[in-house]
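Long-time lurker, first post. I've been practising inverse folding by hand and with some scripts of my own, and I keep getting stuck on stretches where the structure tokens seem ambiguous. Below is the full token string for one chain I'm working on. Before anyone asks, I'm not after the true native sequence, just a reasonable design that respects the backbone. If someone could post their per-position residues I'd love to compare against what I wrote down in my notebook.
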């Protein structure tokens, strides 16, 4: 469940990043998405969500972008965070509601905590653009780590003994 929480934190910082990463993992066959989540393994989904994520990275470096904790932006983060949590839970054959709830908690941590980190970084680096790029890199790193750990969790156990 910790990986769902980290996906949510990533989503709280960057709305489209976790879903884009999960689509890439599914398309590369590193992440099984059975049933209703089959669409994530489609190249069109990968392209669309990747372009949305890159557009968000660019938009977030602009100073005139809205506050992520305003209700419309926060609701969008919660919606996509819930989607990422549901996709992750589906791939693990676990209850979808658990993935959604843990991701939602992560979204709130990432949105409000990420904002505080962003403001702190902006003061330390004396640059909002550099702080935004650092935050984007952190969100991408968290999403990649979460997806990789979910992938490793899905690997079948090996029957090779550790010692002869």
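-- Answer (accepted) --
I ran through it position by position. Result:
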């Amino acid at each position: 469940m910790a990986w769902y929480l980290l996906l949510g934190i990533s989503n709280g910082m960057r709305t489209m990043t976790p879903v884009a990463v999960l689509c890439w993992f599914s398309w590369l066959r590193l992440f099984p998405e059975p049933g209703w989540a089959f669409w994530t393994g489609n190249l069109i989904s990968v392209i669309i969500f990747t372009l949305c994520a890159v557009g968000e990275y660019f938009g977030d470096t602009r100073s005139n972008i809205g506050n992520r904790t305003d209700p419309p932006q926060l609701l969008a983060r919660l919606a996509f965070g819930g989607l990422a949590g549901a996709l992750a839970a589906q791939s693990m054959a676990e209850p979808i509601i658990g993935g959604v709830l843990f991701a939602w908690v992560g979204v709130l941590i990432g949105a409000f905590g990420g904002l505080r980190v962003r403001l702190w970084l902006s003061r330390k680096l004396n640059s909002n653009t550099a702080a935004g790029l650092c935050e984007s890199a952190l969100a991408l790193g968290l999403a990649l780590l979460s997806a990789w750990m979910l992938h490793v969790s899905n690997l079948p156990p090996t029957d090779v003994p550790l010692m002869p």
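A couple of notes from the structure itself: Residues 2-154 form one domain. The helical segments are 2-13, 17-27, 43-60, 71-91, 96-125, 128-154. Happy to go over any region you disagree with.
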